[in-house]
Amino acid sequence: MVNSQRRSAFISGASGGVGRGIALALGEAGWSVWIGARRAAESEAVAAEVTALGGAGHFLYCDVTDEQSVAAALAQLVATDGRLDGVVHNATSGLTATKSAPLANFSVEEIWQHIGVAMRGAYLLSHLAFDNLKQNGGALLILTSEAGFEGKANLPVYAGVKAAQRGFARALAREWGPHGVRVNCMAPLATTPAMDRAFVTDPSMKARVMGRNPLARLGEPLQDIGRAARFLLSPDSVYVTGHTLMVDGGSCPVT
Amino acid sequence: MDNQLALIGYDDSDTLHLATELGARFIAAPAGGDQAWTDWRADLRADAGALRIVVALFHAVSAEQKLAEMQLESWFNRAEKPLMHWMMALGGAALLCQDGGAIVAVTDDPTPLDSSGFAAEAAVGQGVAALVRSLALSEGKRGVRANGVLTPCRLIKRPPVAPSPPLSGFPGTLGEDVLSSVRLLLSADAAYLTGHCLPADRGRSW
Lengths: 255, 206
What we know:
CATH architecture of chain A: 3-Layer(aba) Sandwich
Mean pLDDT of chain B: 96
Number of domains of chain A: 1
Order of helices and strands of chain B: EHEHEHEHEHE
Shape of chain A: globular
Strand order of the largest sheet of chain A: 3-2-1-4-5-6-7
CATH class of chain A: Alpha Beta
CATH class of chain B: Alpha Beta
Shape of chain B: globular
CATH topology of chain B: Rossmann fold
CATH topology of chain A: Rossmann fold
Strand content of chain B: 15-25%
Number of strands of chain A: 7
Mean pLDDT of chain A: 94
Largest interface: A-B, 49 and 52 residues
Low-confidence stretches of chain A: none
Strand content of chain A: 5-15%
Structural class of chain B: alpha/beta
Oligomer: heterodimer
Order of helices and strands of chain A: EHEHEHEHEHHEHHHE
Number of domains of chain B: 1
Helix content of chain A: 40-55%
Largest sheet of chain B: 6 strands, parallel
Structural class of chain A: alpha/beta
Distance between the termini of chain A: 43 Å
């Protein structure tokens, strides 16, 4: 094991979109970034981008709903870097962008899929990373959504699990604070492949999203979202915990 | 009994007490697994429904536990399974509730100041709050209101973390704090309130 001079972070679901933006932002700052995802080719490409920016990018196969998979991924990271400074739970169910319907129209199977990625993933990453995070005063960051504040008429299951993540993080911040480990959430609004698909699924969605955005644009995954996430993972935010940072151009009226 | 008021919940003493106090028709939530919930929700389509629906799912209360020490099975039973049940039950409530009616969800939720050791329950409580807001948005177009009551009264057994709540008697009771909040939200006095979740916690949070 090498105790790397680089800070080391694990990011779930970072093969594209917001997760990629966070990975690149950490790469800019020289972090060792481990892309935990299922899509190897896309993840390897993001890892290469991280390295090109001055960080050290790595791909790890990881299914966040599987305890053994998460444990193996984190073990490999720590065995290589000798430290773990940040964990980002960014992975989201693929159903989010493809099904738009009221609550009574979701099947048990669809509900489990959302709960599996959002909640099982949050539990496993937290449960299994804690011992290493507390060695260096690390930070956990969970990617939630404005839906977790205000609900969504046609994305109710997504809204439910995203709010659940906020409640989880707020409680965990109190539990882990005495150990020097911070827990925060971030609610981004960004141009991503998932958002593009959602606009196709619900053609009226884009007008609704942009109509209330005072900055009149979607966030860019690296510059707007990734760097804000980097702040929450870095010592610059050492006195911030239990918080949900809205990085949405001012869209969400609830804070 | 008020035929226009129904209460969905588990067949346990806390729930039956609420139903009795409210004079509500009791609709038992399934004790079984996924297929039982699917069948239950499908069967509701044949129900005449009601103008006012209360959903109160009281899961078995567990002692506070650090997440690092919580095994997956415990996490599943404290967080994942309860939230799935809430999603199915509130979907069922939307099917049952007649146009112009009201839905009130009653859920356990640890007050933020006292939530250490209750990460699973905090997840469920806040998840239910967002589900309520989602119902308010989707059902509002037919005049249905959806609100919630968040209560720590079954969860918090230890003295509150300092400072003390502004009102005495924290964490409150089902028979006082919760029932009165439910009655308020079901009443005509709340005719223009929707999407709200009242923390019935003696002023501990807001």
